[in-house]
TrEMBL record:
Keywords: Lipoprotein. Pfam families: Lipocalin_2. Transmembrane segments: none annotated. Residues 104-163 form the Lipocalin/cytosolic fatty-acid binding domain. This is Apolipoprotein D and lipocalin family protein. InterPro entries: Calycin, Lipocln_cytosolic_FA-bd_dom.
Length: 164
């Protein structure tokens, strides 16, 4: 009888909901880390946002040099771009961005493939998460790997919206 009760309790636990997300797309209690493979020189250039959690995510992201330092520029699908956001390195693959209006955002490169063709980016707060790629199509295996990395870092990938 005790074994049957224990089995029922274990099975009940299997159907439990995961942790609740607060103010973001990831479980804040989950561990998160930036990639040790990160290389700023190889990360520079334009990236297409192939997947995002936020409907207002940019269409492209460019990592550029601006006024003597690194910066990010975000563009929409019509090609309209924000002013550059100066970036201060806070660690390997980690940046603090400052927007034109003084808004700040933390930007971490969670994973990048060996060829620097596909990346998963986000931050500990989980207020955004993107899958970036150098091209608008292709690389299905790398895109799947980026999804797995977001999941591993506590993101609720059921909310991830892929772009075609």
């Amino acid at each position: 009888m005790k074994r049957a009760l224990l089995a029922l309790l274990l099975l009940a636990g299997c159907g439990a909901q995961g942790p609740k997300l607060t103010d973001g797309y990831r479980d804040p209690s989950a561990l998160i880390g930036s990639t040790s493979r990160y290389d700023a020189a190889r990360f520079k250039g334009a990236w297409v946002v192939r997947g995002s959690f936020d409907a207002d995510a940019p269409a492209t992201v460019a990592f550029v040099d601006s006024r003597g330092g690194p910066a990010f520029q975000f563009c929409d699908s019509d090609g309209a771009c924000d002013d550059v956001w100066p970036a201060t390195s806070t660690g390997q693959g980690r940046y603090a961005l400052t927007g034109p209006d003084g808004e700040t955002k933390t930007f971490w490169v969670l994973w990048v493939d060996e060829g620097f063709r596909t990346a998963a980016v986000g931050n500990p707060a989980g207020d955004f998460g993107w899958i970036l790629d150098r091209k608008p199509t292709g690389g299905a295996d790398r895109i799947r790997a980026a999804q797995e990395i977001l999941d591993f870092n506590g993101y609720d990938i059921s909310q991830l919206r892929m772009r075609k």
